[in-house]
Every structure is written in structure tokens, then in C-alpha cells.
Amino acid sequence: MRGLSAHMRDLLVSDVKKIELLKALLDGKVHTYYRLSRIVGTNYETVKKNCRFLELLAFIEISRVDKEESASGVASYRVRITEDGLKAAKKILNTMKT
Questions:
Q1: How are beta strands 60-65 and 76-81 bridged, if at all?
Q2: pTM score, two decimals?
Q3: Which helix (H) or strand (E) holds 56?
């Protein structure tokens, strides 16, 4: 994992992706799994699994948009960061700077 700080090199790839997801959500906007996969540079399934874990920690909230409610006719998931997630992400990013 070239180009990563010493802190990041000690983490599992999946841990790095979770941190990248939190970082992407710091803008406070609601994102879909698809959009997050583009921002983080990974696939939809990886984003979905990592988001489920972050939801267990109460760092993010996930809401499902049923296909009947969706303008595209396709079900999707909406993800947003929580206050706890904001605090955790900022703490993680500050720790990685040192």
C-alpha cells in the first residue's frame, strides 16, 4: 500500500475503506452506495458490507428507498453520517496526521 501514512499501512484494506467511506461522508450529504463506490474507488458490494459495519457502530444511517418510491424504478440505499460518525471520523483523521 504505497503512498499511505505509517498509521494507514498497519490497517487492513477493509479498515482503510471504512475510513475512506467516513471521510467521503464528512460533507454531510446523503449518498448512495453507487456514489460512494465511485468516490472511494471500490465496488458496490464492498461499500454495502463496510456500510453495514459502520451502521452497527452507529457511525452512519442507512435508509432503503423501495423501487416503488424511486424515480428510476430501482431500489437503492441512502447513506448519511451521524454525529457519532462525524466525531469518530475527525478523531481518526487527526490521529493519522500525527
A1: antiparallel
A2: 0.84
A3: helix 44-56
